Amino acid sequence: MTGNNPFLGAFLLILAAVSLLALAGATGRGDITTATLVLAGAGCFIAGVFLLALHKGEPIDPEITALLPVQGTVSIATLCADLGIQGNAWFVPEADGTVVEVIPVTSTFPVTPRGDYSYVTGESGCAVRIVPACAPLLAHLREKHALEVPEREYEGLLACVTEVCDDILEIAGKTKAVQDGANIVVTLNAYRLLPGCRAVREASPKCCTMVGCPICSLLAAITAIGAGQPMTIEHTAIDETTKTLRVILRPAGAERSGSDNSH
Fold this sequence. Notes:
The chain is an alpha+beta fold. The chain is about 45% helix and about 20% strand.
């Protein structure tokens, strides 16, 4: 089969072109049959050349891609846990369009810290302030794909999440983003980066909500920008049978859903 080998397919097309042109030259009758052989040969040759010219090379194995950010996510969560932090990360939209990730010691959302300090202490509570893992990806989407997140318009926001996952990043077969009360629930069916989720959860499911991988933090960042308020990854779950990832995002001030994957 040549479906997965464009080089073999191109070679066969060019070989067919040579054979057809050679046959046309050997017969040399100058009739419509010869003309048909010449046209067919020329078509095969052009198709083969185009197949070689447009081939971009083999894509990276999704399983390898999924495993790249795993250790970074686990390491940050481990450092936070060693500092006595038990809360889930909050993704706070900034005035300049960026998002800052604040991980509080407890479940209480702290007053948004100012400045670039990584360790925040104060009357509002202690927390760790970091740049979310999705920051380079979010910047890339804005620069290369002209991503514009609809603000305070939930229907457009949910459509934006679906477009990013399915059409731009192509990380899922089908993404469904819905509003469930105050929460936003994103379901990625046939999720292609599931091995990364599996590896992170083997270390601890709490890593998913305390820090968040690049994809989950991207979902939180986009929804935080669109909602115009801090969002947290309330809960994540994977279904190995259907290869589905489900992420529940909760805005600041909303009641907890009662689901927590750290338990």
